[in-house]
Design goal:
This is EAL domain-containing protein. With about 290 residues, the protein is α/β, with parallel strands linked by helices. The protein is built from 13 helices and 9 strands. Strands 1-2-4-5-6-7-8-9 form an 8-stranded mixed beta barrel, surrounded by 4 helices. Bound molecules: ligand C2E and magnesium ion (MG) (3 copies). Ligand C2E binds next to strand 2, helix 3 and strand 6.
Length: about 290
């Protein structure tokens, strides 16, 4: 399977992370059944454009409703899916479901929205990834500019392979974002090789921004660097108005966080679209009055 092509460092990291406990092995077995049993679904979290106040994109987040365990966090099962290789069929299902949902919203009359989909490292070493993305876009009738793929900095270790792959994906017309930016222990040199559109500032930097001048300095630095590199910035995990204020002052482009909305179902995005919009507008207007 694809694992033979994944750099050794990743495999070591993964096996170090997940101990071989009985529970973990059980979860791995159950994961295999979960896809066939349709236990997975997607939630979507709105991203608010701070310049327009509009929801122009959503991030798709996979959910596992286990028949007896209940909700299992992706933080727990994604690493297991990666290690077991299940991430390949699961990742395909996620991409297809997200693209088809984006097109459904459009057909239901919502303004066009970009959908962001997280990629796992195993998928970047999947032989037919580019073909698969192309094929899914055709089949779901989603225009490529409405798909954004999120990669993480841990994927920057095999620079030549990833650079070539990202160029092929860009050639299709889709967008590329770097997720969890600043947490990956990687050098910044990939920023000049990779054809990326967007950086997502990790929640870890934003969480204490009101109380920690180091976090303030780091977020300001990321915002100004992104501007010079002509990259858009999404700040993740915004829960408080004070965090929002800091990011607006720093000229951040997009915000994603509980302050605006938690991840919600596709139906909720559709049914509550105007409410979500008005909520975003209210929060942004309130902020401007406070200025
Ligand atoms: P991520 O891609 O960085 O996703 C953002 C995570 O932050 C989501 O957690 C989201 O619910 C959470 N979040 C957003 N706003 C806030 C906030 O204001 N406060 C707090 N406390 N949290 C917030 P989630 O859905 O549990 O996903 C966790 C991670 O699991 C994701 O981090 C991603 O690395 C992985 N993941 C989730 N869905 C997928 C998927 O479809 N494919 C892959 N490969 N990985 C996924
Ligand atoms: Mg993400
Ligand atoms: Mg993130
Ligand atoms: Mg994360």
């Amino acid at each position: 399977r694809e694992a033979s092509q994944i750099p050794q460092r990743v495999l070591f990291y993964k096996s170090f992370m997940s101990n071989g406990s009985a529970d973990r092995i059980l979860i791995e077995q159950e994961l295999h059944k979960a896809l066939a049993n349709e236990e997975f679904y997607l939630d979507f979290q709105p991203q608010v454009n701070l310049k327009t106040g509009k929801i122009e994109s959503v991030e798709a987040l996979v959910r596992w409703r286990h028949p007896t365990r209940g909700f299992v966090s992706p933080e727990l099962f994604i690493p297991i899916a990666e290690e077991s290789g299940l991430i390949i069929p699961l990742g395909k299902w996620i991409l297809e479901t997200a693209c088809s949902q984006a097109n459904t919203w459009k057909e239901q009359g919502l303004p066009p929205m970009k959908v962001a989909v997280n990629l796992s490292i195993g998928q970047l070493f999947q032989q037919d990834l580019v073909y698969m993305v192309q094929e899914i876009l055709q089949r779901t009738k989603l225009e490529p500019q409405y798909l954004q793929l999120e990669i993480t900095e841990s994927m920057t270790m095999n620079i030549d392979h990833i650079t070539q792959l990202l160029h092929e994906l860009k050639a299709i017309g889709i967008q590329i974002a770097v997720d969890d930016f600043g947490t990956g222990y990687s050098s910044l040199s990939y920023l000049k090789d990779f054809p990326i559109d967007c950086l997502k500032i990790d929640r870890a930097f934003v969480r204490n921004i009101q109380h920690n001048t180091n976090d303030e300095a780091l977020v300001s630095m990321i915002l100004s660097m992104a501007k010079h590199l002509r990259l858009k910035v999404v700040a993740e995990g915004i829960e408080e108005v004070e965090q929002l204020a800091f990011l607006i002052n720093g000229d951040c482009d997009y915000i994603q966080g509980y302050l605006f909305s938690k991840p919600v179902s596709a139906e909720q995005i559709f049914n509550n679209f105007n409410e979500l919009h008005n909520r975003a507008k209210d929060i942004l207007t309130e902020f401007k009055y406070e200025e």
